[in-house]
Amino acid sequence: MADVAAAPPRAQHNWSIGWGDAGPFLALAALVAIGYLINPDFLSANNIANVVTRSAFIAIIAIGATFVISSGGLDLSVGSMAAFITGVMILFMNTVAPSVGTAAIPLGMAVALVTGIACGLLNGTIVTVGRIEPFIATLGTMGIFRALITYMTDGGTVAIDRSLRDAYRPVYFGDVLGVPIPILVSLAVALVAAYVLYRTRYGRRCVAVGANEDVARYSGISVTRIRITAYVIQGACVAIAAICYVPRLGAATPTTGLLWELQVITAVVIGGTALRGGRGRVWGTVAGAVILEFIANLMVLSDFVSEYLVAAVQGVIIIIAMLIQRMSKR
Amino acid sequence: MLRNALIAAGVTAALLATGPASAAEKKVIAVSIPAADHGWTAGVVYHANAAAKEINKAFPGIEVIVKTSPSASAQVSAIEDMSATRKMDALVILPHSSEELTTPVKTIKEKGTFITVVDRGLNDPHIQDLYVAGDNIAVGFNTAKFLVEKMGGKGNLVVLRGIPTVIDDERIKGFQDGIKGSDLKILDIQYANWNSDEAFKLMQDYLAKYPQIDAVWANDDDMLLGVLEAIKQSGRKDIKFALGGNGMKEIIEKVKAGDAMTPVETPYPPSMIKTAIYLTAAHFAGHAPVRGALKLDAPLITKDNAEEYYFPDSPF
Amino acid sequence: MNAAQAHVPAPDGGPVLRAERLGKAFGGVTVLSEVTLDIRPGEIHAIIGENGAGKSTLMRLLSGYLQPSDGELLMDGAPIRFHTPSHAQSVGIALVHQEILLAEALTVAENIFIGREIARFGRLDERAMREAAAAQLAAIGCSVSPRARVGDLSIANRQLVQIAKALLGTHRVVIFDEPTAVLTHEEVDPLLDIIRALKQRGVAILYISHRLDEVERLADRVTVLRDGRMVGTYEAEGLTPQRMASLMVGREFASLYPPKLEPELGEPALEIAHAHVPGFVNDVSLTLRKGEILGLAGMIGAGRTELFEGLLGLRPASFGEVRLHGRPVHFRSPAEAARAGLGYLTEDRKGKGLLLGERLAPNLTLAALDRVHPFARLDLAGEAQQLDRAVRSYDIRLRSRDARAGQLSGGNQQKLLLAKVMLNDPTVLVIDEPTRGIDIANKSQIYAFIQSLVREGRSCIVISSEMQELIGLCDRILVMRSGRINGELSGDAMSESNVALYATSSVARERALEENAHG
Predict the structure, then answer these.
(1) Where is the signal peptide, in residue numbers (chain C) (predicted)?
(2) Do B209 and A50 count as a contact with CB atoms less than 8 A apart?
(3) Tens digits of per-residue pLDDT, A151-175?
(4) Cβ–Cβ below 8 Å for C355 and A215
(5) What's the number of CA atoms in the CB half-sphere (13 Å) around residue A13?
(6) What ipTM was assigned to the predicted interfaces of this complex?
(7) What is the domain extent for residue B176?
(8) Which of A159, A253, A300 lies closest to B206 in CB terms?
């Protein structure tokens, strides 16, 4: 029939994948090579471990954001939500620590997860049932969570009880066979997330809703349920990140998680997930989060960027990373 | 946190109870400060509320009311509302920004209100009757002098600075002046936005980059917390001193306990608001001239005088 | 018949524009070759061909959007190359696009002058533009205000604005690319009148259309393309749509439609009583019997699509009663309807039917994920088999397994959509505009599929704006008008004139009833 002649011949290249999905990893590899040339210390095991561990929070939250964004949503509240969950968790643990001792830590983790899921449910419900633009809805909850943490801390700091500090510390600073625990946690989260997004009915539906809400609805998919679930996954991811975050500095402050939402969205987009929805890349997101942290690290390790220009150079590198990604798609 | 809310409720209740008749005879001191959005401003709010409570109790003829505002424009509205709705004998203000608050405060001054400006100066110094501020240059300078002395005049330093502002610039300038003439060398200086998380990351990177660091100075205590955690994690033994500034209670506790790495602290105490409120109250209660400018010194806090700067109930 | 003998001498003078052995290749793929044709003043020259025959490529070559790889263009006998569309425009070649390319938020005048604004000393002269726009609109007999916002206009009026925009300035050749594709039946005639008026003024018209009946009514000469080559140019006089279709496809077409079965009408399969969809449907009742193909005719906006969207819970609606195979049902979502055995194929296959950027297998199974994948985990191997089966049973032509739905031709997309809905094994199928925008060969296949579904004991409702399609395919036709059922036709009463009558006029109903009574 007329099929073959109908579509322009170069269309096939536009759609081909493989190289396109490799974009963020190519960018990451390029960055590592450049980093080594700038300062060989960059590749020291210690530095790499530090930087990748640091990127775990953003990576875990960004994995959740991959679901929200590929389902066509957006969540600006993740940074504030992380701070809020951290605060709730610390206050809870400090309250129960005198009576239950270090058992307060697993209880605190459970409370964090429940809080995160509840926050996600709130966001998802406002967006879907309330039919409010995700940008505005989560901008609202962003303010709410931020104000709550400020109120809980009196604008200052709530620190974890001293009796729990050392018991909890290994969750950030510990390692298994030399691999820091936060890295293991983010790998586990990424594995589960990749499975859910690529290999389950939910993942299919999630991407379908993001690609075209109408098609999904006409195909008998409950758009509301899929979207809310995506926000709940996001909330759970934020809680997991908060659980890893608490032992690092042992405190929640009103500036905890400030502007994380922007880093998270940047990581997701660098990773190849379409900001308009319909395409999610879990491993790309992880690469994106690591890229962001590597860039910041390189800024300090290199000597040729004035401290005043660091942000500008970071911006340029992010744009270049996106261009590499875009070009590898052609 | 509940406690503060109770105080606020108590103050409100007290105001309602006294009623307009008695209020008319009282001298009203309005206090306008930024809302608590990080450690230092939280301290300001704490000390302002404490001062209000104490003065209201101690001086029956004076009533102190505290109003916090989350932004410069909100602060302008707040002081305009206060001056429009009630008699205001004095205004103690810690301005969000000099530019936006100058004209509104001047308008209030023209009604005969006594003006006390705290910390950040207004663009026109003639507006203020009384000016109370800390000394940011001294914060940097005194820390630097301590390091020069303890390290025998030589060594490698790394510095973490905050957000590009006058406060940050003055502290860095004071520090650089303080090490001038010695062989102390600043290996690196970067912004960490007065944020513990960013300071933690930056310190990790400093440690990866420089094999020998003798001392660290973070120009604010929030950042120092992140720095200490990074040093602890690295297990490095070369760092002899890690100092901060501002007078956060966690750091004062370390100083009190005789911590080896952080043996001193320089205050830029949020309690300066309390000093300013008391001085303003003195203007009405004391029949002594209090007009002028008061620059609080930033002496080194050591184990011996740490108690004076320690407020266990303050959030900062 | 070959191309050379089909040439007809120009009525007077030479052609305005002549294509001489024109060809175009992308990379190594030739999509058009050896096309020679004349476009003469005062003549309507139609170009017909199946999808992919090269019509759009030819049109783009003639209007400067593409450069030929072979042959040349002659304007008034002299060779010419159009470097850009605006270059072609400047020598008097106007193109009316198939899609409506207007900014909905702007006014009619602003749209007409977009990119060609009249300014005085750098300041926009709104008044001059409004007046010129009004004159332009009046010239084609369009009465919309230049101040009206395009988003508020009907599709037909938007099309007219688009034509006014294309005709701005001097024009000697006007190319219409399927201008009636977006119009309903009754909106077509005024447009054809405008085109005839242009012809009277001596403009050369190139008219590309899928609707062969329009071509028959309008064209002076017809050029047929097939697979990127010219079949020939023919005098329109005496060229029937049947003949045109045969030339396009390259074989004789007995009929597009499968021979009608004598349906053995069984029990009622779907009964809808007193349906109300606020704003669209007002008290509609209908019954579909088992084994029946029931047509639903009417103008766009008559409420046909909305009736079923309401039935599926996609928009607010109330029903006196709905019974599926005799059991009362109430659907809150398409998923519930699918589980009960009711399938719905949307009219908007690109917007609501398929994920154009996705591969074929996920598209195929999207509506039946629970059925194809019994566990939460996806059964990718099973899914691939489903695709193989669908490709075979529905004759979906694709270049590769990894193709995206958007890369398929319209006809194959429609077959994929049909396969997708059929995965849920519906007993009652509602197909909304089954052949919109697809070519003849695929149309005839889809008609055959629909009939075979009915033969299997399923029942089918076909919603269509193409009257011939309903007449050729259905056992019975209900005609909707303004949210109500305005008439029912069956047997010999199913004629275009009757359908049109019921679709447009409410008095028609009584008259028809009267006639029936007397006849």
Answers:
(1) none
(2) no
(3) 888 877 888 988 898 899 999 999 9
(4) yes
(5) 8
(6) 0.82
(7) 136-256
(8) A300
